[in-house]
Amino acid sequence: MASVALSDRLRTLLRGNGPVVFLTGAGVSAESGLATFRGPGGLWRGRDPMDLATPDAFARDPGLVWEFYDWRRAQAAAAAPNAAHRALAELERSIPEFLLVTQNVDGLHERAGSREIVRLHGTLWRVRCVREGTEIEDLRPRLAPLPPRCVCGELLRPAVVWFGEALPEDAFAAAARAARRSALLVVAGTSSLVYPAASLPAIAKSEGAYLVEVNPEATALSPLADEVLRGPAGEIVPLLAEAAGAIREGAR
Ligand code: NAD
Questions:
Q1: Mean pLDDT lowest among 99-103, 188-192, 221-225, 246-250
Q2: Average pLDDT for residues 166-170, to the nearest whole number?
Q3: Helices of type H across the chain
Q4: Does the annotation mark 109 as catalytic?
Q5: CA atoms of 110 and 174, how far apart (whole Å)
Q6: Pocket of ligand 1 (CB under 6 A)
Q7: CA angle at residue 111 from 109 to 117, to 5 degrees?
Q8: 226 to each of 114, 145, 150, 175, 209, how far by Cα in Å?
Q9: Strand 20-24 vs strand 227-229: parallel, antiparallel, or unpaired?
Q10: Beta strands at 227-229 and 210-214: parallel, antiparallel or unpaired
Q11: pLDDT, mean over the chain
């Protein structure tokens, strides 16, 4: 069990004294058994996911990239939301001005009950026609045959943002707007290396937000944070939800 003390300032802000934004990354799903890209277990068949999650990789070998995504869909479907996902859903219900911004594509926040989510990097559970750009929901954990094709005959691709691609404009604008207005921004489970998502904490701080990091490891963000809570999200986020009065103490 992580032993961390929350400051009085953080407790006050969690009691709803101003807008609260949480920014989550792959680390929040680590305790659900989903590997982060940069952490242990990040390799897939000996390959670096960052070489597969790119437009170039898809152009070169769509079948291989789809095998990787098919595997990720199956892993995510078999995983269950953890205490951090659940606590975030409770925080949304209890803090009047609350927004969850995520870089995760696994759908676990949705399954834990979070309703209003800004998804910066898309989702594994939608596919998009590379010719028409039309997106459709596809909740099957495994697709066959690979690579899947649109009714128009063209390839379908995962509706996620690959390295080197632009973020959906609306999503980033909504996240930046919320960051600018926030009194408190909590960054949980992200290495803060992937831009522009990683620029949100600095945007928030420059407008006066209190910046908190939840991560068992030091990151590029740590020096900028006003408060660093070292430990796994599955232990720390429920502590934050308790401090907010969103869940009863010990009810994790
Ligand atoms: P990352 O792999 O770069 O960093 C993960 C961070 O999580 C690290 O800083 C690590 O110290 C931290 N971490 C590990 N275990 C943790 C825990 N139990 N609690 C809290 N933090 C923990 O991930 P990123 O910063 O999200 O960026 C990588 C990109 O990969 C993102 O674009 C994301 O979309 C994508 N990605 C998503 C998933 C997912 O949806 N589950 C998984 C892998 C990668």
A1: 246-250
A2: 93
A3: 8-14, 49-52, 55-60, 62-78, 83-94, 108-112, 169-181, 200-206, 233-243
A4: no
A5: 18
A6: 25-27, 29-31, 34, 36-39, 103-106, 121, 188-191, 193-194, 214-217, 219, 232-233
A7: 40
A8: 26, 50, 48, 20, 9
A9: unpaired
A10: parallel
A11: 94
Q: Cα(47)–Cα(58) distance, rounded to whole angstroms?
A: 14
Could you identify the atom of ligand 1 that is nearest to the CA of residue 102? Answer: 34
Q: What is the pLDDT of residues 218-250, one digit of tens each?
A: 999 999 999 999 999 999 999 999 999 987 776
- Residue found by looking up tokens 């596809």 in the block: 138
Q: Identify the pLDDT of residue 1.
A: 59
Query: Of 38, 160, 142, 14, whose CA–CA distance to 87 is shortest?
Result: 14
Can you name the residues that pair with 187 across neighbouring β-strands? 23, 213
Report yes or no: 148 and 127 within 8 Å, Cβ to Cβ. yes
Q: What is the pTM of this model?
A: 0.95
The residue contributing the CA closest to ligand 1 atom 41 is 26
Q: Which of 72, 85, 121, 126 is catalytic?
A: 121
Q: Which residues contact 15 (CB under 8 A, 6 or more apart)?
A: 243, 244, 245
- Closest C-alpha residue for ligand 1 atom 21: 189
